[in-house]
Amino acid sequence: MYNESFIAVPSRLAVTYRAITDLIPDPRNARTHPKRQIDQLKASIREFGFTNPILVDPGGHIIAGHGRLQAARAMGLTEVPTIVLSGLSETQKRALRIADNKIALNAGWDLEILQLELSELASLDVDIDPTLTGFSTGEIDVILTSATDPDDEVIPPVPATPRTKPGDIWILGDHRVGCGDGRDAEFLRRVIGKTRVDAAFLDPPYNVKIGGHAVAAGSHREFAMASGEMSEAEFRSFLTDTLGTAARCSRDGGVVRSRAILGGLHHRYARA
Q1: Residues 97, 61 contacting (CB under 8 angstroms)
Q2: What's the pLDDT tens digit per position in 136-149?
Q3: E-strand spans in the chain?
Q4: What is the CATH number of domain 15-105?
Q5: Other Cβ atoms closer than 10 A to 270
Q6: CB contact set of 83 (below 8 Å; sequence gap of 6+)
Q7: Sheet holding 250-262, edge to edge
Q8: Which among 51, 149, 162, 174 has most CB atoms closer than 10 A?
C-alpha cells in the first residue's frame, strides 16, 4: 500500500487588460520603488512592451506589480495587462506579495555568462541600450572588469593597525573627509575650515542593533554607540547633541537634515 498526494491544478491563467483606475494598490506593500527603478521600468515597457502582467485578486487589489503600475501611470497609460488570481486566502495573498519579490532576489549570477552577454549587448554591432538590462553603465563597466559575483558585497577586513586615527582630516582636492565625533564642534570646525555650512545631511545611528536589522547578523560590526544600548531619553539627548553641533557650524538660514528612528517612528528633522 502506498499513499498518493495530488496538487490541485488551478484554472488556466488569462491576461485581461484593465483600467488603471480599477486597480487598488496594497497599503501594506513592503517593497519600495525609487525613481531610478520606475525610470527603468518605463524604459523597459517602451522597448519591450508590458511583458509582465500585474497580479490582482478578483476585486482588483494588487498582489504583485506595484512598481509596474507606478511606471504605467507615469507614462500616461490608461490600461494595463493583469492576471486575476482567484481562490487565494488573504494570508496567501500577503505571503505571495512578499514571495514575488524575495524569491527573485535569492538567485545569483553566473559571472562568466553575464559578462559575455553584457559585453555583446554593449558592442557597437548591437542596436540596443545595454542599460535596458537593469544594470547601469557603471555597473556594466565593473562587471566586465570584475572576477566576482556582482551580488556579493565584499567588505575588506579591518586592518590590524588602522592608518586613519580619530582627529585626522584627509584633503581631497576641494573636499575634506574627517575621522571624528560629529558631536565635537571644534572638530567639525577644523573639517569645514573658516567657512560655515549651507546644508548638512546627517545619518546618525538609529539606536538599534545592526546585525539582524540592517544587515545579516555577523556581517557588519555594531556601531560604537547608539546601537541599541540607549534608553529613549539618552537617544533623544544623543540626537540633540548631533543636530545641535551641526547647527552651530551652519550659516544663518542653513539647513540641517537628519534621519533617525525614535520611539518606533521614523522622523526627519530639518532646521533653517
Answers
A1: no
A2: 888 888 888 866 55
A3: 15-19, 54-56, 62-64, 79-84, 169-172, 175-178, 197-202, 250-262, 265-271
A4: 3.90.1530.10
A5: 10
A6: 13, 14, 15, 16, 53, 54, 55, 56
A7: 197-202, 250-262, 265-271
A8: 149
- CA separation, residue 76 to residues 4, 45, 46, 80 (Å): 51, 12, 12, 11
185: nearest Cα among 196, 173, 177: 196
- Cβ neighbours for 234, distance < 8 A, ≥ 6 positions apart: none
Strands 169-172 vs 62-64: parallel, antiparallel or unpaired: unpaired
| Positions of CATH 3.90.1530.10 in the chain | 15-105
CA-based radius of gyration for the chain: 25
At position 5, the amino acid (one-letter code) is S
**3-class DSSP assignment, residue 129:** coil
pTM of the model: 0.53
When pLDDT is cut at 50, 70 and 90, the band that residue 263 belongs to is very low
Average pLDDT over residues 35-46: 94
Cα–Cα distance for residue pair 215/245, rounded to 1 Å: 29
Nearest to 204 by CA among 271, 272, 268: 268
